[in-house]
From TrEMBL, chains A, B:
Source species of the chain: Kutzneria buriramensis
Full protein name: AcrR family transcriptional regulator
Membrane-spanning intervals of the chain: none
Lineage, broadest ranks: Bacteria, Bacillati, Actinomycetota, Actinomycetes, Pseudonocardiales
DNA-binding region boundaries: 41-60
A Pfam family annotated for this UniProt entry: TetR_C_11
SUPFAM superfamilies: Homeodomain-like, Tetracyclin repressor-like, C-terminal domain
Domain HTH tetR-type as annotated: residue spans: 18-78
Keywords, ordered alphabetically: DNA-binding, Transcription, Transcription regulation
Entries under PANTHER family matching the protein: HTH-TYPE TRANSCRIPTIONAL REGULATOR RUTR, TETR-FAMILY TRANSCRIPTIONAL REGULATOR
Molecular functions per Gene Ontology: DNA-binding transcription factor activity; transcription cis-regulatory region binding
Length: 199, 199
């Protein structure tokens, strides 16, 4: 994305590679949210972005990889990790943003399908982890590491486990919907994680 | 299972219905762990259990329902909820038993596939919840409700949310394997949930 390309004027029929890439990603994210994985094809993304299939295959090794990068691009703004210096406020804001994304947009169904399909598709599973979950996990771990340094969190906790307690809990209600994903749930979750449940 | 049936002697070619049912369930659980959902058919279960397909269809409305009941029967003993009167010990034992089941047997792969497939199969999703996850959730909630009465847990917590924090965290590592499921993880999880992470 930051590679330097000779500037080619628009209107002469060629767009800079970085711009094409952005448009392909945007098209992939939109198509995925509109049609789910069932309707997601490289052909349709190419048509939406006005790019060739060859161009897309040059950058993405598979349909799954393109879908995941499109999804990650689409939700990036919503899921930016706030850093106000108050870890409880930041975690609450982040978990609420995530649950709103899951329940209030088409993203919940899409991510459930992607995780579902990745149980029997190892290429999609790798794409999901490399292009979406691992980088997002790293952001949360980094925020908690800073909060440990600031003295807001116990220094004997493993932030990786806390990620599973917060986001894993949300995915649990998404994938096995015995109980609903509500704001009350999200707030309770962060509250329990911060304070513990022991009397 | 507790319906009264006239006792019919074995060797006369007929087994009591309750016995047939148990054998079908055992056969379903074994077949599922051996071959996963991909190799799971009502025909194979019927052959293993020496029962007719008609008999099986009389009790189970679908392949998914039979698979889930077979799975629940298979793991029931392993996942019995201990009640020693010490909720932290009981939750630790239960979460460890669950993580050992996920990592040390074929059950992890099977349950991941079942959850995966249930994202695009609403009948399987209902079967999963009705026959497996909801009853198991209820056991955990009941154990925590008792611990609240005993004064071991804060009385303002929602045990339903704690279920997501504990089991949801384990499912998270199973379904999106960015980080491994280890004993250390399981113990940390319960410890964090009990004590909280705030300094």
């Amino acid at each position: 994305m930051t590679e330097t390309q000779p500037p080619i004027r628009r209107g002469r029929g060629r767009r800079p590679a970085a711009e094409v890439r952005e448009q392909v990603l945007a098209a992939a994210g939109e198509l995925l949210l509109a049609e789910g994985m069932a309707g997601f094809t490289i052909e349709k993304v190419a048509a939406r972005a006005g790019a060739s299939r060859m161009t897309i295959y040059k950058w993405w090794p598979s349909r799954g990889a393109l879908a995941l990068d499109g999804y990650a691009t689409k939700v990036r703004t919503v899921l930016e990790f706030p850093d106000t210096g108050d870890i409880e406020a930041d975690l609450t804001a982040q978990v609420l943003a995530f649950t709103h994304l899951l329940t209030g947009t088409g993203a919940g169904k899409v991510i459930a399908e992607l995780i579902g399909a990745s149980q029997t598709d190892s290429e999609l599973s790798s794409a999901f982890r490399e292009r979406y979950s691992a980088p997002r996990r790293a952001l949360a771990v980094e925020a908690m590491a800073k909060a440990i340094e600031r003295g807001q969190l116990r220094d004997d906790i493993d932030p990786q486990v806390v990620v599973d307690q917060l986001w894993g809990a949300c995915y649990h209600r998404l994938l096995i919907p015995d109980e609903p994903i509500t704001d009350e749930f999200a707030k309770s979750l962060v509250h329990n994680v911060m304070l513990g449940i022991k009397r």
